[in-house]
Amino acid sequence: MVARMKIRGTRRLFNMELNIFASMILIFTNAPGRSAFNRVERRMAPLSKALAGLILPYDHFGNHIDSSGNTIDKDLEIKNFEHAGTVLADIWSEMVLDGHPVVAKYVPPNEDLPDVTEMPQRWYADHVRESQYMFQVVKCDNLNCCSPRRSNLHQIMYQRFLPAPFPFCQDPFGFPEDSSEAKFPAFLIRQSLSLRPDSYKYKEIPYDLYCPSVRDEIDGRTCQDCGLYSNSKTSLQAHRRDLHSKGLDPSARVRPLNVLARRPGEYLCRLLGDSDAEWIDVESIDDPGYSVETENASDEGAPIINNLQTWMENGASLVDDDVA
Question: How far is Cα 63 from Cα 19, in angstroms, rounded to an integer?
Fold first, then answer.
């Protein structure tokens, strides 16, 4: 499943960071197959190591499941789960990573979290650029909006935002029609060239224009009114609704192959011809009556393990051979 940058409820934080600290904020995610280099996953390794040998009893406050592993007491299940979560939080809160203390806290389900006042779409369009694997937030030149820059970065990046990579060839001089074998010049070389790929349809060249996995989706993610590129149709619809007063085009509704998960107002959908999964507003789905698909679901329940050593000696395994 392709990773996509999805920033939710953080525009207020970015505005504060821009005014106090940074001239630019860049957030990256790794492409598929590169998870070994994912900084977040690498930071999770010490947390997993701290749990080595830890056994969390499932029935700390009493047994909430029957002999088949099915829940028979929801309230007791929540209490047992809270105990396990609190133990994990206490262990992790004692750790220090790279000189920084770890702060972990168990959050009960359905707890009311503080509302975050998001910046309006106009601010978002002026300060943010989205792409499949990167998220940019950059100060503007209006001192009534952003504090003065603390660096001379804008003298190098005269476009304000990190420019899109594009292929180039010397013989023949120009942009190759087939970019699969072309070379992409370095950042400073691209900045020194006055040539740019044809971008009349866009406000600026989309950073994903030459990304093979999403190139066919560029036009569908680009605003027809102002040419701004978004990394998802959901983000584009919010932009068009708030900035251009455009309601949802009925023809733009999507019919997903399946729905993988739900959250308030959105479904995680897998679309036809796309291995990616995307959070899409319910109002954008052609038939919002989808049920959530569960892969490899089983009605047999979870195995009850009273003694792990005896259970393993009897030939049981933690992972089915068919699944491994």
Answer: 53
79/311 Cα distance (integer angstroms): 26
Q: Residue range 175-192: average pLDDT?
A: 76
pLDDT, tens digit, 9 for 90 and up, residues 47-85: 889 998 898 888 889 998 888 888 899 899 999 999 999
Best CA proximity match to 160, nearest among 318, 23, 312: 23
How far apart CA 296 and CA 298 sit, in angstroms, is 6
Instruction: Find all residues with CB under 8 Å of 154, minimum gap 6, and list them.
Output: 23, 160
Peptide bond into 288 cis (omega under 30): no
Residue 259 tokens read as 């729905």
CA 136/CA 127 separation, integer angstroms: 8
Q: Which residues contact 199 (CB under 8 A, 6 or more apart)?
A: 205, 209
Please, which contacts does 184-189 make with residues 24 or more away whose CB atoms are closer than 8 Å? Answer: 184/210, 187/163, 188/156
Question: Nearest 5°: CA angle at 309, between 303 and 312?
Answer: 60
State the CB neighbour count (10 A cutoff) for residue 187: 13
Of 50-64, 93-107, 110-124, which gets the smallest average pLDDT? 110-124
At a CB cut-off of 8 Å and minimum separation 6, what does 186 contact? Answer: none
Answer for the pair 6, 232: CB distance below 8 angstroms, yes or no.
yes
User: pLDDT digits over 197-224, tens only?
Assistant: 777 778 888 888 888 888 888 888 888 8
**Tokens describing residue 185:** 């010049």
pTM for the full model? 0.62
Alpha-carbon distance values, 257 to 129, 271, 281, 291 (Å): 29, 5, 15, 11
Predicted confidence band of residue 195 (pLDDT cuts 50, 70, 90): confident
